[in-house]
Amino acid sequence: MSTTGERRASATDAAILEIVRRRSQTSRVEISRELGVTPATVTYAVKRLLAEGLLVESGFARSNGGKRASLLRLNDQARWAIGCTIDADRLSLAAVDLTGALQARIAVPLEAPSDRGAVREALHRALSTLRPEAGAHAATGIGVALPHDLTADGPALLREITRDLNIPSISANEPACAALGSFWSGEQPESGLCATVHMEAGIGLSILQDGRPLQPGPGSSATLDHVGIDPSGPPCECGGHGCLHQYASARALVDRAAARDGLGEELELRLTPSSLSSDVVLLALAAAHGEPRAREIFTAAAAAVAQAVWAATSALGIRTVVLSGPALQAAPVLVGEVMAEHYTARARNLGTEATVTVSQVQPHPCAVGAAVLALQTFVSPGLASRGGSTSQGGRTAQGGLAAQGGFAAQSFAAQSGLAVQGDLTAQCGVASHEA
Ligand SMILES: [Zn+2]
């Protein structure tokens, strides 16, 4: 088969897998109708997917007079993938099956997230205990959610930490992973637009359309950090005044807590760079439990987030928002109350309905999203570019992402309107390389 033919076949396979996943089980006729391709094309592709063990026959549809159609479902145990998140004080892994369902998870402490050797060592330690019965090398691939502040150096970091793993790898920024993880965990609508606001060191934004990310422009990830909250606020490095990160970043929250008499000591905040994310979670927990000073600080920050989210989403007509990140998810009821007052009420005043929920995937959905990304990228059979990227002489398969024509090409490149050739790292913040 020609390379073009392989790509087309692989894209068809990926589209079929996606339809079967979404419908739980379905028939060849339904697939052919939804895909708009001939029944013969579907029959041929399904035969290939059954042989690969990715699909299984699962009984027969009810008869409507004629021959009963046989039903297909995903063989959820056929493949599994790993997702990795690198937080300030820990490294977390999640394993998902072919349907995206969480199979196992583990977190190990991380002393120095900027030390790549330490990250690699933590990754190996976590991999050895994630699914000892299966062995990490049996995984289809590993996805890595890159911390907000490391995204620019993503491909280099990915190469470094996965260099002696014999597993294909891919990375994306944290907000994109949070959105995918939340979507695949059933927290977002199957169709339409949904914004995920992920608060970690910074406040990132990822928008999914029908479950697929709309990516920001070249070389950047979307952030709410510099959305103006108060024009008379303090000057910001961007040249503006009163930007969101000055009120609601982890740094701003912890600085405010440290400046309140005795609060830092009472909450046992460590106030070091590596304790930033655990300190902000302690503050959120205290706020949730009604500690008045913590509550005041946290509520003001959440209100600022609501204001920025309103600015970003109302302009785009987005009415469904999911909030994620360890601090927001540590105080879901309080965050919900603030969003109801400062976001949902504004939509209602304008005669529309808006929904804001806090993700329930603990501690946050990035690891699941990164695993799903790896699954989407590497699961499709006939991954020609495993050889293809090698034959191009490079181990970094940035163009290969799309060339593979897998779930990923479908969800990340082709249907997001991204160019198939060229630097996907720059275009959508995603990089992959073959182990
Ligand atoms: Zn700014």
Automatic annotation (TrEMBL):
Gene Ontology MF terms: kinase activity
SUPFAM superfamilies: Actin-like ATPase domain, Winged helix' DNA-binding domain
Keywords: Kinase, Transferase
InterPro entries: ArsR-like_HTH, ATPase_NBD, ROK, WH-like_DNA-bd_sf, WH_DNA-bd_sf
One Pfam family recorded for the sequence: ROK
Family: Belongs to the ROK (NagC/XylR) family.
Name under which the protein is recorded: Transcriptional regulator/sugar kinase
